[in-house]
DNA sequence: CGATATGTAGTCAAATTTGAATATAATAAT
DNA sequence: ATTATTATATTCAAATTTGACTACATATCG
């Protein structure tokens, strides 16, 4: 559960309720590289509370609104955060690309249809790359070093992926 | 569950029992890019059987050995395989790199320790790259086009990752 | 103006994934 | 010769993840 680092990290900045974390993830564009169902976030908060890493600070009741439960990080949580930070930095990228599994069995597929499917993929990667590059330009100096660095990494990753997929098409699927 | 494609794909080649699939994954070096606990494989077989994509062909009993349950793919399963193949080809790479989450909160970490952690990561990526490149050389022509293509993609990916991580260190973590 | 979509805040059952446990045989290491 | 590890084949409880659902408020649109 790498949502742990996300939650602890955002709580390092101050008390928050789960939904607020959700909003921050969107606002900072983290939703590009952190995919999860909303339910998981509440689960992460629960687990972190049970293990004493975070604690309830306040429950805000507004009439005709669901209650907001504000959480804050504990000293134990801050320690754990430091450790998690190092652990995550050590984890190498996973090579789990859905295309890899597909390529393994490409010989059983219809080349025409596979080519169309790959084209869809290429278009999507192109779109995403464009999106990230426009963020990079527009927000220029307003981005933190961390955010800028992640953008660079993601864009590089997508470029490499594009080149590779185009090569597959040029090689006509090895036929 | 992308194990579905794996199971169906390997059953396209003939009847197999779950453990045999496990062995094939290792033998073909697919374990580099397909990570899962063994239990998941049995679950995938169960689900595929329930939905009529595969069926039990035979149960082999050897004294003092667990039974082997041999499965074969059904016509319905072959159809589903074709569809899954296209679906997986369309799925763009996920940008879910553990380092991204860590970088987001790098400002709260100890630069010295983070640098050490990243160095560990770099070493591991270097090792893996070497491993894949040696496979690429040694098996040269004996690899199928698909396997060769996956290797190229994975190696490119790792190179891009390396360049990026080294840049982070050179930039001294933005400090 | 009423219908429809979007934002707020969270719950929960069901689906999936993990990882430890089982039990036996063969091989390797000291 | 005895201990330790690896290989064979699977099961299952527990941990995690998903995604549908609730319920009300505000904004949007023809």
What does this structure look like?
Chains A, B: Residues 7-82 form the Transcription regulator PadR N-terminal domain. Chains A, B: It comes from Brevibacillus fortis. Chains A, B: This is PadR family transcriptional regulator. Two copies of one chain form a homodimer. With 175 residues, chain A is mainly α. Chain A folds into two domains: 3-90, Orthogonal Bundle (Arc Repressor Mutant, subunit A); 98-172. Chain A is 63% helix and 7% strand. The model of chain A has no long low-confidence stretch (mean pLDDT 95). Chains A and B meet through helix 1, helix 4, helix 5, helix 6 and helix 7 of A and helix 1, helix 4, helix 5, helix 6 and helix 7 of B. Chain A binds a DNA duplex (30 and 30 nucleotides) through helix 2 and helix 3.
Unreliable stretches of chain A (pLDDT < 50, length at least 5) are: none
Class by alpha and beta content of chain A: mainly alpha
Q: Residue share in helices of chain A?
A: 55-70%
The total strand number of chain A stands at 2
How far from one another are the termini of chain A? 42 Å
How many distinct helices of chain A?
7
- The CATH architecture of the largest domain in chain A comes to Orthogonal Bundle
Average pLDDT of chain A works out at: 95
Question: What's the main sheet of chain A like?
Answer: 2 strands, antiparallel
**CATH class membership of the largest domain in chain A:** Mainly Alpha
H/E element sequence of chain A: HHHEEHHHH
Strand order of the largest sheet of chain A: 1-2
Domain unit count of chain A: 2
Biggest interface, chains and residue tallies: A-B, 71 and 71 residues
CATH topology of the largest domain in chain A: Arc Repressor Mutant, subunit A
Specify the overall morphology of chain A.
elongated
């Amino acid at each position: 559960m790498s949502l742990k680092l996300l939650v602890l990290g955002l709580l390092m900045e101050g008390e928050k309720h789960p939904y607020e974390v959700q909003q921050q993830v969107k606002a900072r564009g983290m939703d590009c590289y952190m995919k999860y169902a909303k339910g998981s976030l509440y689960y992460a908060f629960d687990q972190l509370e049970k293990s004493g890493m975070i604690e309830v600070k306040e429950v805000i009741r507004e009439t005709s609104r669901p209650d907001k439960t504000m959480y804050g990080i504990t000293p134990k949580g801050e320690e754990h955060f430091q450790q998690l930070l190092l652990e995550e930095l050590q984890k190498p990228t996973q090579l789990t690309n859905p295309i890899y599994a597909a390529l393994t069995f490409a010989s059983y597929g219809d080349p025409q249809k596979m080519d169309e499917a790959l084209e869809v993929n290429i278009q999507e990667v192109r779109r995403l790359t464009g999106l990230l590059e426009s963020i990079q330009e527009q927000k220029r100096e307003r981005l933190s070093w961390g955010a800028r660095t992640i953008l660079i990494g993601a864009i590089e990753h997508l470029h490499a992926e594009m080149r590779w997929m185009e090569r597959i098409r040029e090689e006509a699927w090895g036929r």
